[in-house]
Amino acid sequence: MTKNIPWTPNMSHSNPPTSNDPGFKAAYQEAKTGFDEGGVPIGACLVDKDGKILGQGHNMRVQKSSATLHAEISCFENAGRLPASAYRGATMYTTLSPCDMCTGACVMYKVARVVMGENNTFVGGDEYLRQRGIEVVNLKNAECEHLMKEFIKNHPEDWYEDIGEPEKAQQ
Amino acid sequence: MTKNIPWTPNMSHSNPPTSNDPGFKAAYQEAKTGFDEGGVPIGACLVDKDGKILGQGHNMRVQKSSATLHAEISCFENAGRLPASAYRGATMYTTLSPCDMCTGACVMYKVARVVMGENNTFVGGDEYLRQRGIEVVNLKNAECEHLMKEFIKNHPEDWYEDIGEPEKAQQ
Predict the structure, then answer these.
(1) Catalytic one of A30, A72, A118, A135
(2) CA distance A46 to B86
(3) Is A72 a known active-site residue?
(4) Domain extents for chain B?
(5) What is the ipTM score, two decimals?
(6) Does domain B22-163 have CATH number 3.40.50.720?
(7) Whole-model pTM?
(8) How far apart are CA A20 and CA A89, in angstroms?
(9) Nearest chain A Cα to B62, which residue?
């Protein structure tokens, strides 16, 4: 089943999205903050259909010994308890292709679009999001990829544990 | 793609699972605690392949104004940051069929089995879990269903907001 939600021009964030979108810039800044904290450098920012930032956050696995605070989950959590209507037409900006959990969160809240910095480091639920009617855009942003490369080079165990694939840290 | 992970008899929790499993009892107790707190009465408990409880929790949407602390997410979070190996062969007991987010968390951590109290109230990712190789068991537990019926009767908005379908509260 593949059904696309049409992207309507009355949505005020840029179409097509770019690395200059305020939502993407906020997500990238979150990733950099995570990197500086020694954490998995992935950031996210949720923007509503009118371009308003609803929340932002970054991966807190290392910082809080958290099993669930990936960037997108932190972002949804920081946005707080919102009426379901707040997510309609919304865009989740994230610096990396979302894992299965974060993909599921975007599906559950029915965001309209997921804009990712890159998916060279990791390919998560890109195809499943599309199957569930969510528009997916890959910005192929080199800075996001660079942050991840640096982190994985220095902390391979932390990264592969984060995505539930520890055996890959040995490769 | 449907591939089944075989359930091996050397796993010490009961096979087939029942409502008397310690993991299910803990999940149900969590749901009751949530009900008594005025929250969405869904509980979960994660049990490892040797029958040890790794963590448990309940839905905290109402109590903490949380957008992400569904029962299974609370449970994973309360279990803490674990090595990926801890989830191998594990069972996630939950009193209700898991939503897309919680389904994704189970997929991401590669638990072996999801045992749900019921799916009459709500059908979440049952089929997707199976497609991703996770065994799914429905205990068809009347007490779990009763807790949800009572909650939805008194707080329909809280429930349908929790699953991102507010329009159904009006039906």
Answers:
(1) A72
(2) 32
(3) yes
(4) 22-163
(5) 0.91
(6) no
(7) 0.91
(8) 19
(9) A81
